[in-house]
Amino acid sequence: MWIRSTMAYRTSFALTTVGNFAMTALDFVAILLMFSRVDALGGWSLPEVAFLYGLSGVSFGLADLAVGSMERLGRRVRDGTLDTLLVRPVPVLAQVAADRFALRRLGRVTQGLLVLGYALVVVDVDWTAAKLLLMPVMLLGGAGIFCAVFLAAAAFQFVAQDASEVANAFTYGGTTLLQYPPAVFALDLVRGVTFVVPLAFVNWLPAGYVLGRPYPLDLPGWVAFTTPLVAAACCGLAGLAWRAGLRSYRSTGS
């Protein structure tokens, strides 16, 4: 329904998609400006940072396209409109994810793919079968991890009700964090995004294996291949949190 509504105004859709593309492209422009003054960032060259950027951008873009609308859940909880979703014979999670589905978010995915394509052309990698296999695993597994973060943040809004900005710190803030090499951050932050909110499995760990870069925490090499397992575990835990939040919902009380 939302896609049909969007495509009813094709010029508007095209302009908003281009605008979405341009806004996200400014992040990479900032990186290009940095490298106009330095040769490396934390020991990583521009093609390597572009590789991180592309992986993070595509993974987050896919998750944002699929479940990004869940950040509006807090508003529905506050005004009681979530009640209308509860009485329909469709899973509430699917309805919330599809609420005001924004096809314009394809602009973010497209921009991430272009940067990733550029990185793959210019980066110096000794490609092996394992590294080639890791590429789609990184993108899909990373998208799964970001979906879990979106879902967990939505579950938290059943309690906080007005916590969309807190959620954005882990979603939009998380993808911005992953655009830069882990070597530029403090070890405590690296530990946090590895063992607490495992965003490092989106690109830092697998990309380090592909590029032959050491990880600050000195983890074994096989950890780079655990992104699907981490994504599955995160989605499972986020699903439990969602069910608990939905069961605790008591409408507005009015």
Automatic annotation (TrEMBL):
Any Pfam family: ABC2_membrane_6
Annotated TM spans: 12-35, 50-68, 109-127, 133-159, 180-202, 222-242
Signal peptide: none
Keyword field: Membrane, Transmembrane, Transmembrane helix
Name assigned to this protein: ABC transporter permease
Species of origin: Streptomyces ardesiacus
